[in-house]
């Protein structure tokens, strides 16, 4: 499941690099604005993966990637950094709620109940 998370990060990065290589100017929006949009879209995809596919681990990779983006952009583009931090916090809350909601099915709970021997 971690690989799905890494594939998401790589896909968004590759699409962004491809658009830059084409010389796409952003359709009237600045590069930082498009970066924030891409972060938000990636966050929505991670939320979908958690809610529909139970891929909490993939979202944790997304949190890691967004925090790395925030650290890298902190000095140059604070808006990008704040967007990445906000999406990370939202993802963490979604993962925590989903994990708590489905804690009955967690491996440690099954071992504790004696379902796995």
Verbal overview:
This protein is elongated. The mean pLDDT is 89. Helices cover 79% and strands 0% of the residues. It is mainly alpha-helical. It is built from five helices and no strands.
- End-to-end gap: 24 Å
| Beta-strand residue percentage | under 5%
Radius of gyration: 17 Å
| Sequence stretches where pLDDT stays below 50 over 5 or more residues | none
Mean pLDDT: 89
What is the N-to-C succession of helices and strands?
HHHHH
* Total of helices: 5
Largest sheet: none
Helix content: over 70%
Shape call: elongated
Structure classification = mainly alpha
Number of strands: 0
Q: What attributes characterize this protein structure?
A:
single chain; 117 residues; 5 helices
Describe the protein's topology.
Layout: H1 2-21, H2 31-53, H3 56-73, H4 78-101, H5 107-113
The gist of it:
By secondary structure, this protein is mainly alpha-helical.
């Amino acid at each position: 499941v971690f690989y799905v998370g890494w594939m998401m990060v790589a896909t968004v990065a590759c699409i962004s690099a491809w658009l830059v290589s084409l010389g796409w100017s952003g359709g009237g929006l600045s590069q930082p604005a498009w970066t924030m949009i891409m972060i938000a879209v990636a966050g929505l995809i991670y939320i979908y993966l958690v809610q529909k596919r139970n891929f909490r681990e993939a979202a944790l990779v997304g949190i890691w990637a967004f925090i790395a983006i925030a650290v890298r952009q902190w000095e140059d583009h604070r808006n990008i950094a704040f967007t990445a931090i906000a999406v990370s916090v939202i993802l963490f809350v979604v993962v925590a709620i989903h994990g708590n909601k489905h804690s009955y099915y967690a491996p440690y709970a099954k071992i504790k109940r004696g379902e796995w021997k």
